[in-house]
Amino acid sequence: GEDVEQSLFLSVREGDSSVINCTYTDSSSTYLYWYKQEPGAGLQLLTYIFSNMDMKQDQRLTVLLNKKDKHLSLRIADTQTGDSAIYFCAEKGGGYQKVTFGTGTKLQVIP
Amino acid sequence: DSGVTQTPKHLITATGQRVTLRCSPRSGDLSVYWYQQSLDQGLQFLIQYYNGEERAKGNILERFSAQQFPDLHSELNLSSLELGDSALYFCASSVGREETQYFGPGTRLLVL
Questions:
Q1: Residue A1 pLDDT class (50, 70, 90 cuts)
Q2: What is the pLDDT of residues A15-47, one digit of tens each?
Q3: What is the DSSP letter of B85?
Q4: Which positions in chain B touch A92 (Cβ < 8 Å)?
Q5: Cα–Cα distances in Å, from B50 out to A31, A55, B62, B70?
Q6: Potential cystine with A33: which of A48, B18, B29, B105 (Cβ 3.0-4.6 Å)?
Q7: What are B40-88's pLDDT values in tens digits?
Q8: Which is it for strands A9-13 and A61-66: parallel, antiparallel or unpaired?
């Protein structure tokens, strides 16, 4: 089946930029997503990108997609302590395909 | 608030028992998805319903079953519970069969 991989942990200082990376195997991906999960809460959709886009920016969030390398990244500018959470990358294939989630990256923001 | 509601928030039960988790999708959403999140397995897709019909199956055990009712709410039934079934169970919904999913707050199940 399809696979989505992320590093497990990232630690940054408050005010710095965070970059969370994700790789996937599905060459027919149509949508790629970033979700945020705070402790004890559900997954909150942060942003998504269609596979024919290279970049999407939304306030402090920038998503970069390298379709050739099947690499997706999420950059959070001016990272705040409230950004501390687990970030999940997910991808959806073409036609009807279920969404495959990565294992999540725990972002720790140090004051 | 995603608009997806799940009840109960917490559930504590014993091995061998049966429980029912309930999900109400966002208004207008026809698809409901169920996921299990545990520490060692990550987020696992269980099953999807679209407008009352089963649409896709993931890693759902035979002891588990689900359905979606005419009012589009869904229930996930877990039976013959084992200790390893302790996890967070999430419901998500989307407008159609393929659109972006919005997650509920989850039900935390503890099997003792």
A1: low
A2: 999 999 999 998 888 889 999 999 888 899 999
A3: G
A4: 98
A5: 19, 31, 20, 11
A6: A48
A7: 778 888 999 999 999 888 889 999 999 999 999 999 999 999 999 999 9
A8: unpaired
Average pLDDT, chain A: 92
State the sign of the Cα–Cα–Cα–Cα dihedral B83, B84, B88, B89: negative
* 3-class secondary structure per residue, chain A: CCCEEECCEEEEECCCCEEEEEEECCCCEEEEEEEEECCCCCEEEEEEEECCCCEEEECCEEEEEECCCCEEEEEECCCCHHHCEEEEEEEEECCCCCEEECCCEEEEEEC
Cβ separation A96–B97 shorter than 8 A: yes
Say if residue A68 is exposed, middle or buried (CB neighbours under 10 Å; 0-12, 13-18, 19+): exposed
| Partner-chain residue, chosen from B43, B45, B97, that has the shortest CB–CB distance to A88 | B43
Contact B97, B50 (CB under 8 A): yes
SS3 for B33-59 is EEEEEECCCEEEEEEEEECCEEEEECC
Place of tokens 């590093």: A7
Which of B4, B45, B105 lies nearest to residue A41, judging by beta carbons?
A: B105
For the cut 90, the answer to whether the pLDDT of residue B7 exceeds it is yes
Does the beta-carbon distance from A42 to B90 stay under 8 Å? Answer: yes
CB A8 within 8 A of CB A20: no
